[in-house]
Structures are given as structure tokens and as C-alpha cells.
Amino acid sequence: MNFERIYKEFFKRIYSYIISRTRNDAAAQDIAAAMWEKVFKKLDSFDADKGNISQWLFAVARNEVNMHYRLYHVRKFFNFSDYEDFNPPSGEKEAPELMEAELERQNLLKAMETLSGKERDILALKFYSGLNNREIAVMVNISESNTGTIINRSIAKLRVLLEAK
Prior knowledge:
The chain is mainly α. The chain has 2 domains: about 1-80, RNA polymerase sigma factor, region 2, helix turn helix motif (Rna Polymerase Sigma Factor, Chain: A); about 95-165, Arc Repressor Mutant, subunit A (Orthogonal Bundle), CATH 1.10.10. It contains 7 helices and no strands. It has helices spanning about 5-20, 25-40, 55-80, 95-115, 115-125, 135-140, 145-165. The termini are far apart.
């Protein structure tokens, strides 16, 4: 397999998945870099009998995101700074349309936080990575029908929360 071809074909989808899980561009860049480094080193170990390349790549990305959160919580516990995630305002005025879009995005992110980690992960795999329900089911070790049920129920929960705003 050609790493360069795989990288060009999957980078945008994988980065979209990572950014949807982290909601932080700097963290997503670090995670993506670590993920692609791991793929480069382990590409020889890919086994097509266990699944397609897309499933394998997203499994590596998912593992890197999960590792990021495990390490984040450890670092946060031992960090004395309350300002680690502080982002000062840019001072630039935005057009009303941009402000409205940002408000909608913030409302969606808040609504997503009410979902369980498993629901958020499955939605991110579905809508930000382009995987189908069968591929997601293999990755999270549940049935394909259960995957579809979780997606539908999660969307319904989000819809109710967003309509209430």
C-alpha cells in the first residue's frame, strides 16, 4: 500500500472526525500528526482480512483521540493553571451572519455534550468521517442495527434540545 495515496485520500475525512471529537484545532492537529505517524510506521501490519483500510484508519484515529482525552484528564488533574483552555477574544467584529452561525455551532456543541460518550463517538464517526453503519458497528463492537438505532435516537435527542432554544 502506498502511504502517500492513502494520506491524500483520507486526510480530510479523518481530520474532520478528529476535529469533531476535540473541537480544538491545535489538539486536532497534534492528534492527526500522531495518528498519521502511527499509520506510516504500522502500514505493513494492516490486514485486509480484518476490514478495509478506511475502518483501520478510523480505528487508529479513534484510539489517538481517546488517548488524548485520557492524557488530558491526567494533565488537568496535575495542572495548577485554571487558564489552560483560555482563548482571548480576537477583538475583530464579525458579520451578523458569522455570529449567528457561531451561535448555532455553539448550541449544537452544548447539545452534543448532553449525549453519552458512545453516542457522540458514533455520531462523529457517521457524520464527520463518512463511515457507514456497518463500518461503525465493527469499530465500536456493536451490531449494525444497534448502530442505526443509536444514531437515530441521538439525532432525535439533539433535535429536541435545539428546537427548545
